[in-house]
User: Fold this.
Amino acid sequence: MEAFNYTDTTEFMERDFSNSKETGTEIKIENVSMVFPDKNGGEPVTALQNVNLEIKQGEFISLLGPSGCGKTTLLRLIADLLQPTSGNITVRGETPRDVRLKKKYGIVFQNPVLYDWRTIRRNVCMPMELMGMKKSERTARVTKMLELVGLLDFGKHYPYELSGGMQQRVGIARALAIKPEILLMDEPFSALDEFTREKLQIDLLRIWNKTNKTVIFVTHNISEAVFLSDRVVVLSPHPGRVSAVVDIDLPRPRDMECRQTPEFFDYMTKIRNSFEGV
Amino acid sequence: MKDKIKNIVLPASFGILMIALWEGRMIHKLLGFKPFQLPIPSEIIKTLSKNFNKAIIDTLTTVNGALVGLVIGCIIGFLVAVIATQFPKWGYTGLTVIATFNAIPIVALSPIMNRWFESGFGQKVGVVTVVCMGAMAINSYRGLNDLKPFARDLMQSYAASEKEVFFKLRLPNCLPSIFTAIKINVPAALMAAMISEYFAASTSGLGFGVKDNLRKGMMAMGWSYIVMASLVGIILYLFIIVVERRAIKWHASQR
Ligand SMILES: Nc1ncnc2c1ncn2[C@@H]1O[C@H](COP(=O)(O)OP(=O)(O)OP(=O)(O)O)[C@@H](O)[C@H]1O
Ligand SMILES: [Mg+2]
Assistant:
């Protein structure tokens, strides 16, 4: 059985940065549209239309919406893996590119994106190599991160020897290992079983609570969005746009009991209704 | 266990059966061959062991040329693939040109190229090089560029340099394709080297051995060279497979 270790792991996202106590704007998305031309000469796809969103420093924000509504596209635009057709994105007053080149993003992709030729340990290690971190420090962090996601015993295995859910957890460990200042997570838990998912949700909240990093979390699970977030951004498809933004004022720290409260269900109902209004 | 029976025991027993039928002259009866047209295995082995030293020297001559050409051809092919990857604009043209070399039949190429080089060794290396370039260029280009979805994005999100992308992503991703190309090229290199010897003025090598002995009617000796060529081909191929097992044990083909 894999053991989950809740203690001693949160320190990994600690990194002091001067304005951490401020709650200024971290990411500003203004009138952003993204149109993908159709390669075969058909109709172009409008993945996002006129999206406006301000994300505060240290905020935990969820992007919620059905398949194809442009969640991944928005995440990729923020990460500078894609450039908007029109509109503007600024991150701490800088362009997404500047922030990316400073290596401040940590991304968990929708699929694990592990390198087949690297063992699990060396996969988690990869971003740290790119950051020029010392080997001793890398080794220590890899151990802690694998402990966090309950995969310490699998460090010497190759990706193909792991189940899909285990691979996804490796992807999470890899993103957290470099203590990113902005964490972008694309449906990180959707491939996991209910037990593992709940454990990792609580772990993620602990890490976030202690470090106050900005987290943008993509999900299509309403309960997950309510449980984790300060704010839930509801996106609707065809074309992708923001249809509602719901503040979640549930007290923190949140635990499993929080999910049983009437307030929790009220939020879920509210969000579900905002879908039906679409 | 079942797989072993299917993959090793069955083909092996079929081979032994064929050799036994051949030795018992059943094949001769079946196809109406005279003994001198198709020497029986025991006679070939007897002749080979009598002339073993000369056969070994001829084999080494051919293998030398084939291996040197193989290495040069593979390096050139790989470099072309790298250039086409890093500088797609004009690099891709180079790749296309190299790839068309694959379409030229060796039998046509060999006599022409034999006029370009003085020594039999140079002729062999030249032909083998040209033959090996294409498969390596095409395969390794594929390996360098067929990346899993988001594999590049991951690198990019950490602002990895082109050099880091190449060495940490493209190159390891390419290893299986490199082995595929080498496995295609080993038998092709031996064949090209032998064909070059057929056409050349050289007086040594496997190709010359086969041609010369068959011309003189020394069938068993000619067949000895065919046996040597097959053995060398099998040994080289097995060697590559063993190296491949160790180098890319993470790859789907090795599980
Ligand atoms: N590179 C691309 N080229 C063309 N169209 C694209 C591209 N990426 C996304 N799209 C289109 O943009 C729309 C939004 O895609 P996106 O991947 O952002 O959806 P999503 O909300 O993440 O969906 P899911 O929940 O299924 O992951 C879809 O219609 C998709 O077909
Ligand atoms: Mg998506």
User: Anything to note?
Assistant: Chain B touches chain A at residues 148-151, 153-160, 164, 168-169, 172-173, 175, 248-252, 255 (CB under 8 Å). The pocket of adenosine-5'-triphosphate (ligand 1) is lined by residues A 36, 45, 47, 65, 67-73, 110, 220, 240 (CB under 6 Å).
